[in-house]
Amino acid sequence: MPEGDTVWLTAHRLDRALAGRPLRVADLRVPALATVDLVGCTVVTVVARGKHLLTRLDTGLTLHSHLRMDGSWHLSRSGTRARGHPDHMIRALLGNDDWLATGYRVHDLELVETVHEERLVGHLGPDLLGPDWDPDEAVRRLLAQPAVAVGEALLDQRNLAGIGNLYKCEVLFCERVNPWTPVADVPEPRRLVTTAHRLLRANRDHPEQSTTGRSRGGEQHWVYERGGAACLRCRTPIRRELQGEQPRQRSTYWCPRCQPAGLGAE
């Protein structure tokens, strides 16, 4: 699933291409919106809220979309089509005189009144890359469920919005916290949210994601997707184990030496 920095960058690029210009192309290929005509509407702004995308129009409406596991928005010059995906995967087309934005396999397409956006995103915690970022509130929400494993709590978008599986694993490694540690037993929970904020901000302006500061293949991440490989810090083999309940079960990566086992990790 795309992380919050990827969604933020998507929104930023869409905003630069679409904001302030009337739509000349508006094709929403989902049954509920198939007859909606947005041609002539001007895009006011495109913003990210956690992992949600909100395209606000001058008519007082907002087009909401979510990338989930496999969605993406691609930009191409007006009159051309983005390459790399077949047409049957297109769910939305938004274009002006200069740019065409193509939404492939985007999910949860819905039009709502902009003043009622909270109906779609109001449940989210503080956005790590948004103007509402509040580390104290994020910590408060995490601690409200003290028995939950911290690896699961960080993925709960109701606590803080924008962390996906990659940053969950990397943040816990950086802070030497075992993913199965109950939130109540995390020594300094504020350090977790501060590190998460730092890592996402460091990666939000480019598609490449590195939490180590390195660009060499296999060394961009401390533990994520490095199961069986040597820890970059202590050379202990990285472990991988599924964490959480279906359908939210995710592969969790950690170093058993740098992140000593708490409950359930061994």
Care to describe what's here?
The chain is α+β, with helices and mostly antiparallel strands and 266 residues long. 22% of the residues lie in helices and 22% in strands. It has helices at 4-18, 118-121, 135-143, 150-155, 165-174, 189-203, and strands spanning 25-28, 43-49, 52-57, 61-66, 72-77, 90-95, 99-104, 107-113, 239-243, 250-254. The strands form three sheets. Strands 1-6-7-5 form a four-stranded antiparallel β-sheet, with helices on one face. A four-stranded antiparallel β-sheet has the order 2-3-4-8, with helices on one face. A hairpin with a 2-residue loop joins strand 2 and strand 3 (52-57). Helix 3 crosses helix 6 (189-203) and helix 5 (165-174) crosses helix 6 (189-203). It is globular. It starts with a helix and ends in a 12-residue tail after the last strand. The model has no long low-confidence stretch (mean pLDDT 94).
The portion of residues forming beta strands comes to: 15-25%
Strand order of the largest sheet: 1-6-7-5
Q: Class by helix and strand content?
A: alpha+beta
Number of strand elements: 10
Low-confidence stretches: none
Cα end-to-end separation: 27 Å
Order of helices and strands: HEEEEEEEEHHHHHEE
* Estimated helix fraction: 10-25%
**Assembly category:** single chain
What form results from the Cα inertia axes? globular
C-alpha Rg, in Å? 20 Å
List the total number of helices.
Answer: 6
